[in-house]
């Protein structure tokens, strides 16, 4: 029996096991001992420029500092500022807004959007589905909301999207439930940098429609946290055209985040966005997510919402902002490409990085590989299925040679 727990029985076992904080603690020790110059920190989830500083988009900073204090301290509406909601819908889709009804509700970062999707679109006790390489927070949110996270194998032998594994897992789950929420983190998936192709999406939607035709409620949350670091604005969003004209028992949602796209990680600003062919489904979406916001954090960061709207409404600022962000995107892409080219050259089997903050290398014993890498003063994150390298945080100069070191570490364990 529990003698020293005051927690409710359902809350007792909550523990965050964060591999990232462990890895970054080891890295800090090495920096103290050997100096930052000699150490490669591939554990960080934020963008670090080639001089080792936390990157900040200059136009974001300028506009943020120009905000009147009132815009920073006042409450905002629970659903979010109306102009912000219009702007995030535009930003989510760019030129690929599907025909249909759209709604948006402001959330505390993309994390808040994922929380709301699980809280409101996954039946308690049922499975939510995501790939076997996934951002660990999905699991925490599912547990918190009384759901279970199931996984399918993301890659096939050719390192393509494993539609067979995806289909098999959906088939298995749908034997036992009448609705399903799937979370797909694309483009530029964390932790692999993978993106679904148009054909992958066609296959996912065909299966979704098959179950919808049987009367099942099918929801997909597209986690687009890294979309602004995945390529050209409209090319990366072309797949969104496919979300037009779906049956009204299929709901497509997006988790929008200002963390990476605006370098505003700590300001906790995002949105959940939905598209449906049913106006009633969107009305309900706005009501229930507003309710869940009221019950969790009430309203969110008014200053950050105002900042986004101001940039969006000022053509010159927007053009400047997009150019600055594009430069950062290219910097990270270049670092990732260096790793991938070197991996290919030395015969290291890395997963297919297409863009974004992270790339991954499968490993049998990821912890041991990471420990071995410490000997070369390289610090990466051991995940269940492999080692995650942060292209967002390793400078271009330091990225050179990392692939060979990972291979060497793999061979040593
Ligand atoms: N989704 C993924 C896959 C992420 O890696 C992150 C951040 O690390 C987020 C969503 C959302 O981040 P935030 O809550 O800071 O917007």
Automatic annotation (TrEMBL):
Q: Which CDD domains match?
A: AAT_like
Entry annotated with the keyword NADP: no
Keywords in alphabetical order:
Aminotransferase, Pyridoxal phosphate, Transferase
The processes (GO biological process) annotated in the record are: amino acid metabolic process
Pfam families attached here? Aminotran_1_2
Q: Which residues form the Aminotransferase class I/classII large domain?
A: 40-378
- List GO molecular-function terms, semicolon-separated: identical protein binding; pyridoxal phosphate binding; transaminase activity
Q: How does it assemble?
A: Homodimer.
Q: What is this protein called?
A: Aminotransferase class I/II-fold pyridoxal phosphate-dependent enzyme
